[in-house]
Amino acid sequence: METGEEFGPWLARQLRLAGKSQAELAEELGLTRAAVSAWITKRSVPRPTVMVEIAKALGTDLGTVHTRTTDTQVGLPVTWYHRPGYHDGGRDGGNAAAFAFDADVQVLARETCQNSLDERLAENGRPVRVRYTIHELTGGMLDAFRKAILWDDLHPHYASVSQSASHQKVGRVVDAGVRDMFENGRLVLLRVDDYNASGLTGDDYDDGKFAAVVRRQLESLKSGRGAGGSYGLGKATLWATSALGMVLINSTLSVPHEGRTERRVIGRLELPWRFVEGEPYAGPAWLGRPDPDSPGALVARSWWADEETVASLHLTRDSDEPGTSFLIVGAHDVASLDQSTVDLDLDEEEGADDDGTRDVRAMHRRLVEALGRDFWAAMTGGGSRLPLLETSVRTLRNGEVVVEEEKVDPTVTQPSRTRALRAFYEGTTVDRLTEAGQVALRTVPFKLPLAGGRHGTLGTHQAVLLVTDAEDADGAPNQVHSLRGNRMTIKKSGVAGLPLGVNAFQAVLLTGHAAGDSVPFVDEAEDFLRAAEPPEHDRWGQTEELTLRWSHTAHHRISRLTTEVNSAVKELVAKPKRSAGEGGTKLRKALTVPRRTTAAPRRAAGPSLPELDGLQASIGEAGEWQITAEVKLPRAEELPTMTPTVLLDVRSGSRPRLDWAELVAVDGCEVENGVLRFSPGARRAVFRGSTDVTSHPVRTALTRLVLELRAGKGE
User: Fold this and answer.
1) Within 13 A of 282's CA, how many CA atoms are on the CB side?
2) Which has the closest alpha carbon to 117: 229, 268, 246?
3) What are phi and psi of 322, to 5 degrees?
4) CA 251 remoteness from chain centre
5) DSSP for 131-189, written as a single string
6) Across the strands, what pairs with 687?
7) Cα–Cα distances in Å, from 138 out to 121, 169, 189, 315?
8) 463 neighbors 511 (Cβ within 8 angstroms)
9) What interhelical angle do 169-183 and 151-163 show, nearest 10?
10) Is 485:513 a contact under the CB 8 Å cutoff?
11) What secondary structure does DSSP assign to 345-406, as a single string?
12) Do the Cβ atoms of 191 and 135 come closer than 8 Å?
């Protein structure tokens, strides 16, 4: 039989919860107070026959007394505790930490997945598993959930916030959330579960992970040196994503607390200052069991819930594996309100309009996209390296499946980058790209500064650069994804100054522990780069921490690293000189630059004509041709205007002409009404453009492109 807390401490807490003294229990049992005191101080335990009487006195069953894995249900009930208003009259219009992030499920995915990675139990070698569940409630299930969260007790507080909504940004969001729930009869729950993670360990109030998440702001207690978070702000995204400001929590602990590990439950509510029934309230509130050790037993603490209570709060976990479940009540995704980027895809899903689930389907899609984009490296393994992370998303409505659970596969979302990282793990990289599918490796020096503002270099950390050819599913080509120890993509950047005509590529920069645990100065690089990240952890640059711990010029070391990376990329992707008869790549075959095969007769008069001398093109996300062209300009005092004309190559008949959606000058020219005017004295010019997909007669991937320069207006 599973047993939890020791009998003495457990009994002492039950007496406090029930409001009974040791003397009163002794009198009910017909024993001396000294006998009860001996149990409390762990000097003895009661006989089995006495256990039966203790269960009766506490109003519980004998199994609860024997196992002691939960509290009895007598005495102080679970309730909401609202922090009283400040005695000095101060007011908070909401939790300022929540304004560090947008109410965006993609931001939520980035922050919560990062936190789960930081709390992974690494000793067993298994990845942390994170699952996102979108669950829309209506009708009876919504009514039952409102009852479980004690909505009637909360209603006066929400009503007060709604009355002052016009004066508070947070109040307006909350008011809109409440109106949506009642006017539309629906509520969206978004649950984030992680498994094989540490869980919210520690005391309710003292230093520990529980207090850092539930009680405190701007406190980060991470488990490892390679952790992604450092500000203690990431947890604020949970409350920022709730239109009601409410998050419920169920944690299974990796280290027992009060002798137990399962179903440690608490809720936290973030509202602005309010005045309710003549009393001022500061802002936050907690759902829990009143703490008998607090003054007047008013403060709520976490409690060990039974399975029925956890189920009613939609917090049931799949297993007893350590980790935490966060339930965002009234989840909203402001970014998905503009569904221009997802409507076309959703329209293809049968029934998306008929069953009213378009918004939760859009939320599902955006979560999958964010996880695949930001955590592809953490989900990739190879050789002796195992994945650090597994993620999935599912969508329900009243318990019924709307979108089946979708496991995020990095080989689908980021095929080129995944191939590059796997080749590094498996030791199959090459020095230079000569064939499709190869992965080239370069080490890039990263010189770390001395701390404390001292001049000089601490040492050189060798970052690892991987380059491979790009695939369409990767998104924008010619990008460098940079990451460190927890393998979350930190920085995404293009490479400046690429020569025309390079094949599309993708690059990955591994720094810190991502480059290998045995690389020199790995911990120092990890520490430096972590300090160079803002709260969003989406770039490296100047930060206050970098200035305080190193110097105000320390970020220049990162700029030098970027320069070294760009130089190495350009060296790896530069095309070798080709002979006149040598063939091109697949994309080269799809592009045509008309050239004269015989020398044109020299004209006696008239201007010389500019000629196309280089062409680089790719297919954009919307299916448009994206073109960069270089023009060779003859020596002449005055050059004629030219019109770039884009056509589709066909076997017979006239070539269909495509329209430009955008045409811009880059160097040596200017664009006016679709016509190129060249700068006096320039010898070369570069322009860039993208085609209008509505003018494409067939799918872009099935076409061959022809670009011509026509004199004048090109008619």
Assistant:
1) 14
2) 229
3) -60, 150
4) 21
5) EEEEEEEEHHHHHHHHHHTTHHHHHHHHHHHHHTGGG-HHHHHHHHHHHHHHHS-EEEE
6) 629, 665
7) 37, 27, 11, 18
8) yes
9) 130
10) yes
11) HHHTSTTTTTTT-HHHHHHHHHHHHHHHHHSTTTT--BTTBPPSEEEEEEEEETTEEEEEEE
12) yes
CA-atom Rg of the chain in angstroms: 32
Give the type of residue at 373. R
Q: What amino acid is encoded at 144 in this protein?
A: A
Nearest alpha-carbon partner for 642 in 675, 665, 671:
675
- Cα–Cα nearest to 244, from 287, 208, 206: 287
**How far is 596 from 609, CA to CA, in rounded Å?**
12
CB 667 within 8 A of CB 681: no
Could you tell me the sign of the dihedral formed by the alpha carbons of 469, 475, 478, 484, in that order? negative
pLDDT tens sequence across 378-422: 999 998 889 999 999 999 999 999 999 999 999 999 999 999 999
CB of 440 within 8 A of CB of 486? no
Tens digits of residue pLDDT in 532-563: 998 878 889 888 899 999 998 999 999 899 99
- Is-contact 460 477, C-beta < 8 A? no
Residues in the chain: 715
SS3 string, 97-119, reads HHHHCCCCHHHHHHHHHHHHHHC
Alpha-carbon span 33 to 421, nearest angstrom: 68
pLDDT digits 0-9 by tens, 358-374: 889 999 999 999 999 99
Q: Residue 146 is inside which H or E element, if any?
A: helix 139-148
Token pair for 307: 């399975």
What is the distance between the alpha carbons of residues 493 and 562, in angstroms, rounded to a whole number? 10
Look at 116-130, 288-302, 643-657 and tell me which has the smallest mean pLDDT.
Answer: 643-657
Strand partners, 625: 619
Tokens coding 114: 């990062």
Q: Which residues contact 694 (CB under 8 A, 6 or more apart)?
A: 659
User: How many angstroms separate the CA atoms of 122 and 329, rounded?
Assistant: 31
Alpha-carbon distance of 344 to 576, in angstroms, equals: 42
The pair of three-digit structure tokens given for residue 651, joined into one six-digit string: 């076997």
Of all helices (H) and strands (E), which one includes residue 507? strand 505-510
Q: How buried is residue 444: exposed, middle or buried, by Cβ count under 10 Å (0-12/13-18/19+)?
A: buried
| Strand partners of residue 664 | 688
Q: What does the alpha-carbon distance between residue 267 and residue 269 come to, in Å, rounded to a whole number?
A: 7
Strand order in the sheet with 660-667: 611-619, 625-632, 684-691, 660-667
Q: At what angle do helices 7-18 and 48-58 cross, to 10 degrees?
A: 30
Amino acid letter, 389: L
